Amino acid sequence: MELNEFEYADKLARARKKVNDIKAFYRHTTVYVLVNIFIIIITVSARMSGGESFSEAFFHFATFSTPFFWGIGLAFHAAKVYNKNMLFSRDWEERQIKKLMEKDKKEADKYR
Question: How far is CA 21 from CA 28, 37, 61, in A?
Answer without folding.
Answer: 10, 24, 32
